[in-house]
Amino acid sequence: MCATLPFYERVLEVPRDKYLPASNRGIPVPKEPTTIGGHLRKRRLRLGLFQSAAARQLRVSTVTLSKWERDVLYPAWKNQFKVTEYLGFNPFTDPALGRPLGNERVPVVLISSFGYQLRQKRLAMRLPRKALAAQLGISWKTIWGWENNRRNPSPKLKARLEQLLKIGGGKVP
Fold first, then answer.
1. Which residues contact 75 (CB under 8 A, 6 or more apart)?
2. Which of 3, 50, 78, 160 has the most CB within a 10 Å radius?
3. pLDDT tens-digit profile of 116-155?
């Protein structure tokens, strides 16, 4: 970066590659990031990339990267490998960096329900609803209804689910 002073014929040069800006468009740059978004933002600024260039490297849209950096959106499972490769370490194994935020509240009463057990087991297996639905030959919306306790599976399908996912131990309310 060069600056010419109006009254002098001297040019000042300051190397900026070692320094991160204190803020960028009002969003502070974390020195010690505590979230995955903070790590993504710090890495991008260290590389001197615009969001569009970093988004191309991660093979996501600029809007998605922006939401990740602001911790509005958590990277989906299919993108976690790309994020790990981009950062140079796996941030998803550190519980201090946060977990996916859901917009669903789980009432305490429903914790022992079949739908709650189904959802927890499916998430633990990192199995999307659509993949589970394809294995069972049903619609993913049906699984959504079960997980939200709006519907109950037939006894035959319930037994098949228990066997497939090993939930409930045969005794499911």
1. 36, 68, 83
2. 160
3. 888 888 888 888 889 888 888 888 898 888 888 888 888 8
